């Protein structure tokens, strides 16, 4: 099992981030959906239990052609759907990703704490026990200066170029993490278990690397669409999510484009 904590610093407040994150998730889902694959939203509803209350979502990712070739080689046809359950009790959130074929042999858990006026300096924001602290490795994610793959680069999602007309924020240059206001940090503890003889270490390392890349790209997109989500209320976001679900269902049902 590999445990890493990713500290993602953002040029916004926690209150703003709650809206921005939901907006960006919905937009990113559209980019990944179409031709029979993509994101299927099964549930998106309030929840209450003994520990917390918030918003519960259950999604299925139909992504067989998008997973790494090494996983496609070992997984049988039809087994590449991923199931995501998320409990959003902001500022604390938990997401669990599983696979129906691997069952208890695969689990990817992400726990997040969102902290205002933080620049990634908190040592144990999620109050994890000592035994996990000893295994955990921390990674600071700088959305402006960290390298991303050439194929993932988009000029309209480059924080070093983006300027928000509504807020005056950006571009993010140099040591922006030390100087920008407002500022907040997402502390994301990611635990990966992939029990497959002979491949566990390699796959777990690959998944952690993929998660770091996903967090970087996602938060670049979040910042660079500030003028789209800034000023939205939670009621606006819920209506936007409902519309996005309908769009995803329609897009996923369309046949894939044939290439010749």
From TrEMBL:
Signal peptide: none annotated. SUPFAM superfamilies: Bet v1-like. Residues 1-245 form the Phosphatidylinositol transfer protein N-terminal domain. GO terms for cellular component: cell periphery; cytoplasm. GO terms for molecular function: phosphatidylcholine binding; phosphatidylcholine transporter activity; phosphatidylinositol binding; phosphatidylinositol transfer activity. It comes from the Eukaryota. Gene3D superfamilies: 3.30.530.20. This is 17713_t:CDS:1. It comes from Funneliformis caledonium.
């Amino acid at each position: 099992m590999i445990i890493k904590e990713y500290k993602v610093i953002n040029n916004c407040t926690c209150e703003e981030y709650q809206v921005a994150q939901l907006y960006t998730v919905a937009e990113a889902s559209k980019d990944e959906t179409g031709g029979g694959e993509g994101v299927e939203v099964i549930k998106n509803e309030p929840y209450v239990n003994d520990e917390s209350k918030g918003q519960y979502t259950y999604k299925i990712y139909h992504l067989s052609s998008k997973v790494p070739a090494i996983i496609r080689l070992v997984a049988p046809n039809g087994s590449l759907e991923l199931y995501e359950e998320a409990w959003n009790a902001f500022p604390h959130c938990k997401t669990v990703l599983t696979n129906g074929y691997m069952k208890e042999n695969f689990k990817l858990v992400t726990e997040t704490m969102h902290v205002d006026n933080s620049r990634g300096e908190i040592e144990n924001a999620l109050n994890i026990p000592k035994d996990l602290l000893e295994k955990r490795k921390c990674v600071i994610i700088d959305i402006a200066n960290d390298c991303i793959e050439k194929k993932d680069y988009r000029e309209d999602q480059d924080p070093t170029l983006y300027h928000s007309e509504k807020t005056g924020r950006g571009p993010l240059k140099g040591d922006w993490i030390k100087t920008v206001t407002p500022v907040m940090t997402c502390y994301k503890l990611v635990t990966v278990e992939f029990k497959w003889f002979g491949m566990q270490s390699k796959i777990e390392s690959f998944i952690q690397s993929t998660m770091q890349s996903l967090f970087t790209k996602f938060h670049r997109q979040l910042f660079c669409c500030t003028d789209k989500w800034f000023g939205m209320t939670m009621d606006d976001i819920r209506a936007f999510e409902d519309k996005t679900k309908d769009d995803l269902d329609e897009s996923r049902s369309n046949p894939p484009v044939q290439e010749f």
